[in-house]
Amino acid sequence: MAALEPAPARLLPLVAQLNADYARAIDDDRLEDWPGFFAEDCLYTITSAANHRQGLPAGLIYADSRGMLRDRVAALRQANIYERQSYRHIVGLPALLGESGGAVRTETPFLVVRTLRDGRMDLFATGRYLDAVVEEAGGLRFRERIVVCDSSRIDTLLALPL
Amino acid sequence: MMAASRPRDEEDSMATIPQPRAWPGPDLTRVPYWVYQDEATYRAELQRIFEGPVWNYVALESDLLRPGDYRTTFVGEMPVVVVRGEDGAIHAFENRCAHRGALIALDDGGTARHFQCVYHAWTYDLRGALIGIAFEKGSHGRGGMPAGFCKADHGPRTLRTATLHGLVFASLSPGAPALEDYLGDEVRARIGRVLNRPVQVLGRFVQALPNNWKLYVENVKDTYHASLLHAFFGTFRITRLTQGGGVLVSPDGAHHASYTIDRADDRDSTAYRDQGLRSEHAGYRLADPSLLDSVDEFGDGIKLQILTVFPSFVLQQIENCLAVRQVLPRGPDAMELHWTYLGFADDPPPMRRRRLKQANLVGPAGYVSMEDGCVGGFVQRGVATAGDEVSVVAMGGDGAESQETRATEASVRGFWKAYRRYMGH
User: Fold this and answer.
1) With CB atoms 3.0 to 4.6 Å apart as the test, which of A42, B119, B258, B338 could cross-link to B247 if both were Cys?
2) Tens-digit pLDDT string for chain B (425 aa)
3) Distance between CA atoms of B249 and A2, rounded to whole angstroms?
4) Residue B350 is inside which H or E element, if any?
């Protein structure tokens, strides 16, 4: 990764808004809007802190195009079987790490509570988003969103994206 | 000397120890639901199967390249350390200090010259032998261990180890046959077909499942369900029962390998649509089909091979997505599935990327595997009060032999054939 230039502070509320909109889309079951938060040429992957630390590249989800994100939504809607469930994302303040190659690097902590059909609620995941955010078509999009979960252990299944 | 009749108080105490229940009948096509619920059965399984004369997968040789490299894992619920010794051999021992029983190694893995328990600093060599006791001679001539204490007589239980195609297996039982004989030629060849050169770990994840461990093993062996539960498979013709393939069951029933071969005459089959099956959606196409851009890397046209080694090991090849899975029981109604995603050490970058993309099929978020993650829980909850009822395992007859079709439950019956033998049912 190239050396980072300082990122302009004016971006902070914009990145925070992007994160808030992203979380609302998933939590409000507007999954069809989810791929739109990414650039066409993007990387979205969910991994764990242990894998990330050891440089192991495999993800629970690994998508390197917006089309793959749309396919994920289509599979969840049309093909996959999982019990009805919803998330509540609590997203922390983004840290602007710097700018490089036209993208702003940010890191944002998150916490997700999963509520299942029978009302059971679990602290499903915590972690951090490692993002590369770009300006595209007048708005901000993720060129890269690496979801680093603090734990490598997933309860039952991970259906909805984090 | 054995007493002709046991004293009354011993008889009374025996009566209070829960015993595994009796099997309802000899037929392999019926399985009682209490087998997924009964606490005494579960405890007996840990002893008679996992700690019995079987081989448990415990590590990859690639995790243990140099002397001192180790991994911690489990055999059933028993914590174990697997380590490459100074002699180059792989050793395995119970991760339990001989002093007060604390875990000896606390990390998932690493490199060690020896192991020292954190509690009272008792020290073990790479074979698990006790070699040091803190203040063994006491302090200022007082205290210390008794003069006759022999370190060699105290140590954690050690396990036999054996390796095959880069997989490390361990057994607590001197009665287990040699690993090669345990697996048999056919299953061994099917492992070697995939693991034909050094592997590289691409990632590790744990999936905590809300069901008895046997429900997961049955699911993996169940060739009948794959294209019915998993709509993703059926729609994209990764595996369908109308495709070529079959299931190989080891002679003792314990192990299996199922496989799918792409067959041109299946492309126009309407069998799924004709039966109104959910798993085929005619209009469903990928926006980015690169997910399924596979290559026939083993040169035999086999698109999918799922292999189990009794009791708890799975080797998976789905297209170019390779993984090993370790089944760890965690009580009658819980288990952990430890996933290790693999590539080969000599994979060129495009093949590495292909494997990372195809990993979307498996694991806790897998297009296919997420359903295997929840379906065991559906059974566990469904049979909540049906312990005296039985399930029906009758597809493809009542035997447990290899078959040239996957519309069968032969390998599930094979599991029960082996299970009952180990359990004495």
Assistant:
1) B258
2) 333 444 444 444 444 555 668 898 899 999 999 999 999 999 999 999 999 999 999 999 999 999 999 999 999 999 999 999 999 999 999 999 999 999 999 999 999 999 999 999 999 999 999 999 999 999 999 999 999 999 999 999 999 999 999 999 999 999 999 999 999 999 999 999 999 999 999 999 999 999 999 999 999 999 888 778 888 866 665 556 677 888 999 999 999 999 988 765 555 566 666 666 665 555 677 889 899 899 999 999 999 999 999 999 999 999 999 999 999 999 999 999 999 999 999 999 999 999 999 999 999 999 988 999 899 999 999 999 999 999 999 999 999 999 888 889 999 999 999 999 999 99
3) 54
4) helix B349-358
Query: Across the interface, which of B202, B208, B353 has its CB nearest the CB of A156?
Result: B208
For residues B34 and B45, give the distance between their C-alpha atoms in angstroms, rounded to a whole number.
13
User: Which residues in chain A have Cβ-Cβ distances shorter than 8 Å to B373?
Assistant: 156-157
* Residue among A87, A88, A84, A108 at smallest CA distance from A96: A108
Taking CB atoms and an 8 Å cutoff, what residues of chain A touch B357?
A: 62, 64, 68
The sign of the torsion formed by the CA atoms of B65, B67, B72, B73 equals: positive
| Predicted ipTM of the assembly | 0.96
CA end-to-end distance (rounded Å), chain B: 30
Per the CB < 8 A criterion, the answer to whether B80 and B72 are in contact is: yes
Nearest CB among B286, B290, B363 relative to A60 is that of B363
Per-residue tokens: B278: 């959910």
Size (chain A), residues: 162
How far does CA B262 lie from the centroid of its chain? 28
Name the residue with tokens 């095959």: B164
Classify A95 in phi/psi space as left (phi over 0), alpha (psi -120 to 50) or beta.
beta
Q: Which residue of A has its CA nearest to B229?
A: A81
pTM confidence score? 0.93
Nearest CA distance, A6 vs chain B (angstrom): 32
Nearest residue on chain B to A157, alpha-carbon basis: B364
Going from the C-alpha of B309 to that of each of B59, B71, B191, B287, the distances in angstroms are 14, 20, 10, 37
Q: What is the DSSP letter of B289?
A: G
Could you tell me how far CA B404 lies from the centroid of its own chain? 25
Contact list, A60 vs chain B (CB under 8 Å): 205, 363-365
Cβ within 8 Å, pair B363-A51: no
Residue B266's alpha-carbon distances to B38, B140, B242, B281, in angstroms, are 44, 83, 6, 16
C-alpha distance from B394 to closest chain A C-alpha (Å): 25
Helix, strand or coil, per DSSP, at residue B315: strand
Residues of A with CB below 8 A from B363's CB?
Answer: 60
| Cβ <8 Å between A158 and B281 | no
Q: Which residues contact B2 (CB under 8 A, 6 or more apart)?
A: none
User: CA-to-CA distance for B200 and B62, rounded, in angstroms?
Assistant: 7
- Nearest by CB to residue A57, choosing from B229, B284, B356, is B356
